[in-house]
What we know:
By secondary structure, the protein is α+β, with helices and mostly antiparallel strands. The chain is built from four helices and nine strands, in the order αβββββββααβαβ.
Amino acid sequence: xxxxxxxxxxxxxxxxxxxxxxxxxxxxxxxxxxxxxxxxxxxxxxxxxxxxxxxxxxxxxxxxxxxxxxxxxxxxxxxxxxxxxxxxxxxxxxxxxxxxxxxxxxxxxxxxxxxxxxxxxxxxxxxxxxxxxxxxxxxxxxxxxxxxxxxxxxxxxxxxxxxxxxxxxxxxxxxxxxxxxxxxxxxxxxxxxxxxxxxxxxxxxxxxxxxxxxxxxxxxxxxxxxxxxxxxxxxxxxxxxxxxxxxxxxxxxxxxxxxxxxx
Length: 263
């Protein structure tokens, strides 16, 4: 009987020691967590959904505390730093932390430049591979009249133009949007290179057999270039984009092509 009582006492002592040990471990862990995440800093977040290219205003933003250990140098801490001539380069959802790489001033335009959008289809848009940040040439085809004759001509209208943005004109499935890879400037170059032609959905045509525009491409142009492109959109026959290498800066003169060029 005495032995059973002694064993019971030892069992209680051991159980109490284990419970105390476990409690100490939990308390130490919680203290470590508090030390790690206890200090918090305010960062600027989207108060509501902000579409890409939207100028940022105070009513679109708010402050949100986050653990200091999660802080990134890219995060915006003071809304006053970004409220002057700043736009979002990507779509932002409520609660998204604003990062400086997501923002740009003056709609991404250099002094004297204008943002001009044009519709593109599968052919004129280089098979859906044009993306923000690309440099492109603009090729136009039109009919020229003079001296009682009409001449079809194709020429290089603009060279080394920056693409500011690309957006789909009509909703597609998420699979189609991924295949087209048109929307986001955050898309990595590696993923862009891996996109295959087989993944791109078929082109769309009107009832008359004309290929429909599937997207708008926004270009950075001077005022004169904007007028020339707009004229060609209204009165020309076709406009095509040609993607350039990013390191190709030369602008060699290129002669227009007419039927006589093939004789």
